[in-house]
Write the structure tokens for this entry.
Amino acid sequence: MSNFKSSLKVGIFLGVRQLKRASRWTTGLIVFIMTLTFLNLVVVSGILIGLIVGGNNANREQYSGDVIMTTLSGKPDIVKTQDILATIEGNKDFTQHSERYLSGATIEANYKTRTNFNTKADTAGTQLAGIDVDRENDFSNISKYVIEGSYLNPNESGYVVLGANVLRRFSSSFGDGFDSLDGTYPGDTVKITVNGKTQEFIVKGIVKSKVGEVSIRAFITRGDFLRLVDRGSLNANEIAIRRTANLTDDQAKDILVSSGFDQYAKIQTATEAIPDFLNQIELAFGVLGNMIGAIGIVVASITIFIVIFINAVTRRKFIGIMKGIGVSSMAIQISYLLQSLFYAVAGSLVGTIILYGLLVPAFAKHPVNFPFSDGILVAEPSGTAIRVGILLVVTLIAGFIPARMIVRKNTLDSILGR
Amino acid sequence: MITVKNITKTFKNGDVVTHVLKGIDVQINSGEFVAIMGKSGAGKSTLMYQMSLLDHPTTGEIIVDGHNVTDLTHDERTKFRLDNLGYIFQDYALVPELTALENIMVPLLMQGRSDEEVMSIAKKSLEKIGLGHRENNLPSQLSGGEQQRVSIARAVAHNPKILFADEPTANLDNVSSEAVMDIFKSLHNQGQTIVMVTHEKEYTTYCDRVIHISDGQVVA
């Protein structure tokens, strides 16, 4: 035990001084490599996962909220919508909600300039959403995503905001599998048909978002919807709810379930409302990121191995002399372990500062513009800590092996350099 | 203090076998200052490496301070060297990243002494050899003679029973060599057992006895 204590003390004594008196350029270069390795380990998987998480976050912000209630299978709408809304409004743990009235609809454009009636009319199927204009905007900030024209005015009637994917000029990438409208700009008139009933609307604006439910819908005021659809009740089809920070999504859902509203609506948290395949993709991207990160780890461990090996080989004579004057092998190995540990800790520390001080805020402010989401950088502290741990362990092993190889050489051979 | 019984040392390099020590018997008493002399390749350094536990003899037996050290394990030999032996090498062999003071501190720390004691002993050792003002200098900032004096201070700071010196003046000018030998003389006068390999006859006058080696055997 006392030998271990002495070895530890001498190992630290030697290691600290070797680091202090090493070339600053060399040390800086090794720390730089370790920083890049750390960032490779965290950022690559973080961006891949962030691609999905960014989409999920947008979905939560612009569509589902924290909890979403939808119609039960086989039911036309959410029964007792008004009771549910009253409960939500009366609970201070719920901060916002938006009820939406939905129906399948067909939109026809360019019918006024149509000359050849033997060809197919310019129509597109869509989901028509009747909304409380202000409440929806407060909830989802939908007006921010209006790219042409303007958002609906609650005091006007006869206007529609079209999701960009309803228009061919925005949805060409979907191919020919979906009908979409030619041309069609704000100010144009379109016909909207629901259950055989048709009404003309003026296109007020075009809304474009990477959240599918926003870009594939057509939005009109709730009043226009109820008149067009001729719905006898005020039962909505979708209620999106936002909670306070005091609750989790599950707790918010439980409040609604315990109120018995699951008899009238399907109640899901934002996560549950995400299609399962997206969760699977997130997992797959996580694995992919870790695989790429693992390559980085191997590169870093080889780098450390080479650095320590060259250091130990060039100092072989002094290692022999230290053994000769009675310094234990363990102390010498500890001195090299300490150097490896320093490189890994310094690299991780610099990497963590860059990650949380620069990259995460930068990605949050300027998300990567992926086709189907605004990708952010996901770097959970717990995941980062695990990666730091992996890097430390791998680096320590990579530093220990060459040190041990050199220390095990015959003492006299080391001293005499033979 | 040291009893060497019929040791041999053989090196093999492929099919070539070289017999460097051919059955040597040596007795060195406590407090003696002994020089080992011989021509280049005679086996004098090899003999010292066996006696100082830096190497294993091929056959034979070595007893140091009453301990048969022939069959000690690697770690036991390291510990034995730390507690009982001191070394001075021809090329000083100071650790380049450590200052003069730190070089002296290493074996003392390894012995498990307290920081205060280590610092105190190391400083006193440096002052004894007249280099107290150079304690924070790295070896590269010291002359050859100064480095060798630091090397001596490191070798004796922990009060070894036997001090081994392998051609300690070979790389030094006359003035520095005299200074080193004066330190040895002073240590010897204090009762230190010293075994020195040298090929410089003039310095054998400092010694009690000279062992002459030729062709792997003691000749006088």
Observations:
- The helical segments of chain B are 44-51, 74-84, 100-110, 115-128, 144-156, 174-189.
